[in-house]
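Weekly sync notes, structure subgroup
Attendees: PM, AL, DS (notes)

Item 1: joint prediction request from the bench team. They want all two components modeled as one assembly rather than separately. Inputs as received:
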Amino acid sequence: MVLFVLAAYFVYGMVTWNVVISFTDWKGAIPSYNFVGLSNYSAVIKSDLFGRSLLNTFILFSAIPLCLAAGLFLAFLLNQRVKGIKIFTIIFLLPFAFSLVVTGVIWSWMFQPDGAINSLLRSIRLGFFARDWISSSAILASVLIPIIWQFSGYSALVLLAGLKSVPRKEIEKARKKGMNWWQIFWKVEFPRLRIPLLSCAVVIFVFVLKASFDLLWTMARGYPPGSYYTLPILVYVEAYQKMNVAYGAVIGNILVGIVLAIVLPYVWFSYRGHR
Amino acid sequence: MVIGILVIAGLVLVVTRREGPAEVTENVQEIVENYQASGNVSVAHWWTIDVEEQGFRVLKNKMEQLYPNMTLTPVPVPGGAGGNMPPRILPSLVAGTNIPGSFQSHPGYETARYGGYYLRNLNDLWEYANIAERVPAIVEKMCKLDGNYYLVPVGVHRTNVVFYNKQLLQQLGIDMTNPPRTWEEFFNLCDLIKQRAQERGLNIYPLEVGDGMGTDWAATQIFETIMAGYSLQTYEKFINGTVTAGELEPILQLFKRYLSYVPDDHRARNWAEACGQLFNGRVAMYVHGDWANAYFEQRGWTLGVQYDIFLAPGTENLFGLVVDGFVVPKKGNVIGGLRWVYSYTTLEVQSSFNPVKGSVSPYRDVPDNIYTNSYARNAASALRNPQTKFYPSFTHGIAIPNEILYDLHPKISEFVEFQNVSASASTIASLIRSGTYTISWDIV
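Output from the run, pasted for the record:
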């Protein structure tokens, strides 16, 4: 009951309020509730910066399959009954404990022209890979690296649990049939990972959305907006810095729409699965 | 169920609580002279690092000495040179809950965005503390909106200064007895620094920007100073929203030249780290506001020995003005807020606070001998000099509307990146001309 009331007020109430605001002329610190129809929506859609921010947000979503692939690889290694598996699990999971702002600051230092990444590349004779990692053309690609670093440990843990749930009998049976390790993985273990992969993808989607503000705001501020603005950053800049409240609310609603479009099918799918 | 309702009721109470007593008197004299008053006042501020934090502690201690039964609760809102204050404070103001007794602001447009709708009119306090007579006319004008005062100034910073590593330039055999007075002379000096460094096999850059790691405004700060030094007329048109692309082009040309002397990786550092480059001898000079002085003093440098300051070229008689102050929201703890803003207008608090914070007192009755270095004494005397021309800083939200400013920073970032003079001049001019300007500045 308490949770219901709190969720009704702080989640559904606020989201509805945001929708209401998006149809008003509220611009500036002082609230104004005159109805202006869809004019804020058309202004947002016509804006080049909105289009660019939307594209940048979708570019960042490419981190989701990359995190899953890295997590799957780590989970596969951890499932090999190696010594010290607990230590490796902790090492892989540790980045997940960092705040995204801390991650942003640390990786900004490492990405500097004479920072750890370039120094490491030069010391192992891969100096030709050394580059200006945080430049206006490279920032979005570079930021995928700390995202994968931070979240692949989490997906490894979830997928490891999935791998562990495969009965040993089935694996033994496959071995007896003469399957090699790859065939066992692909034909016996991987089909069992469908649900963990899906739930992991949704959780990482939420994390990436969070990183699309925290990480980029920490690492890229000062570059031309088109090179790094994402929808969450655009909401913050418009609604809070410039106080174009109604305009920011529109972008917020679009963001909520995108999240629902991705999360609702998953909720429906898992609900149906449970039934 | 019952417990649930109680929990929610408790939450609502916590969220909507108002600190301090309900307003019982509006007489400002009765309020500020009630030195035995008790209670608490919360004050939101952005002075959270180094000397800034020490400065705020002086203000807090002094207020608690003046009102021994009162306590001050600082509400730190770090970052963004105050840019994070509106996002922090706006939701409280709109919801009418959790409003601090007072919060920090810059005068001009930054305070105008809240205006009389949210803020208590402080005309009575200004009269009681005789503030209008004690501060320069431009400061008085900045604090007045629609004929009313909403902000009480606490300290002033000068934006048009150039820091240089004195030891480094001595090592390069460069005489700084007569610092450059025009931008042409300034860039000739940069060429000389480059040449001498090359001759000695040193990897030194003449200048820095400091526009990375969250302080993109440091680039706007340089653009502002170049503009004021190049033409105060253009500056006046800029802050009144009437500047043209043609008028901005020569300024952007100078800025482009400035950028040719900075390290390629300047975006890897914020303004304080840019000062660090100067401190470490990797950079010779840096155009920034005088608050950077505190960075060097904190690290044991003495002005005139290891480093020095000269006024930016073309700004010898000018004073780029950033005024810090506090406002009192109508729906907060107004009585506590009034005691707080009054407390720091006194001679004693002004004399203790400004030397620690590294700012100059806006109050002209504060003597020069409180300042520990010659720069601050000169700035204080410039503040009183009738020959000084003041220009309000637009980088810090005072001189142009905030929605224009937050679009300007990214436009300056674009210029720093692409350095396309005519394209940027045209986009910046059309941005500036698109604003609604409610303050008419007369600075020439």
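Discussion: Chain A has one domain: 2-274.
Action: AL to compare against the crosslinking data before next sync.
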